[in-house]
């Protein structure tokens, strides 16, 4: 009788130890635990300033897509326009159609509202050495870029938000070949990126992406209707 009780106590202890071990182990992640990543389609930006070149709008769109991938949980996808279609021709309704065709949840219609670069040159007084004051000419540039982004849900075609952001940057002793307009974004490479206008654009893109990310609670997952299944072949009556 005593041996039976001992065996029961041992079995109960083993069961409790097993349950405690399972609770301490990390449980496998189910599919429901994964957070859905919204897909944002980015169209080429419309340049209302006229300061950019032919590829400026597409280059800014790619910059926004890259920033979405870098700093948010959103999935950015560049949407290319059909041949013969200009960015200026794409309104909200057309943008939603393109978003549905490319199976993205949200479409961004972007516009460059401002892109200015002001240069100034003035006398700069230096230190005094042996009674002589050293000085020269100081060259500076101040740049401002303002972007607007209109977000549309592909699922219902409604506008989520319309945001405006401004990026600023300034620099003194600017090199003579520094970029001063958006037209150099695709051709000047590092020269554009390191210029005040390039830095201002980068700051504006970063602020725009923050606003887009903050609008995630308003986004709707786009789930296109499944294609109709083919009808079963008719069987001949025998």
| Class computed from helices, strands and strand pairing | alpha/beta
CATH fold name, please?
Rossmann fold
Distance between the termini: 76 Å
Helix content: 25-40%
Low-confidence stretches: 20-29
**Rounded mean pLDDT score:** 79
Radius of gyration: 30 Å
CATH superfamily: ABC-type transport auxiliary lipoprotein component
Treating each run of at least 4 consecutive H or I residues as one helix, how many helices?
5
Write down how many β-strands occur, each being a DSSP E stretch of 2 or more residues.
Answer: 6
- Beta-strand residue fraction: 25-35%
Tell me the overall shape. elongated
Major sheet details: 6 strands, mixed
The tally of domains stands at: 1
- Write down the secondary-structure element order: HEEHEHEEEHH
| CATH class membership | Alpha Beta
| CATH architectural grouping | 3-Layer(aba) Sandwich
């Amino acid at each position: 009788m005593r041996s039976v009780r001992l065996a029961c106590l041992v079995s109960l202890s083993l069961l409790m130890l097993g349950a405690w071990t399972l609770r301490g182990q990390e449980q496998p992640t189910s599919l429901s635990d994964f957070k859905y990543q919204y897909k944002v389609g980015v169209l080429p930006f419309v340049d209302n300033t006229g300061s950019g070149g032919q590829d400026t709008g597409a280059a800014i769109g790619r910059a926004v897509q890259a920033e979405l991938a870098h700093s948010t949980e959103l999935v950015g996808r560049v949407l290319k326009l059909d041949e013969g279609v200009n960015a200026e021709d794409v309104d909200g309704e057309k943008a939603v159609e393109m978003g549905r065709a490319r199976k993205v949840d949200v479409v961004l219609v972007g516009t460059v509202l401002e892109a200015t670069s002001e240069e100034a040159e003035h006398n700069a007084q230096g230190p005094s050495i042996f009674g002589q004051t050293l000085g020269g000419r100081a060259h500076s540039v101040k740049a401002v870029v303002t972007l607007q982004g209109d977000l549309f849900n592909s699922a219902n075609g409604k506008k989520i938000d319309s945001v405006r952001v401004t990026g600023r940057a300034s620099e003194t002793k600017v090199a003579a070949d520094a970029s001063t307009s958006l037209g150099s974004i695709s051709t000047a490479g590092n020269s554009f990126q390191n210029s005040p206008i390039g830095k201002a654009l980068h700051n504006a893109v970063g602020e725009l992406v923050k606003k887009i990310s903050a609008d995630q609670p308003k986004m709707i997952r786009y789930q296109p209707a499944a294609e109709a299944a083919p009808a079963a072949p008719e069987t001949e009556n025998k």
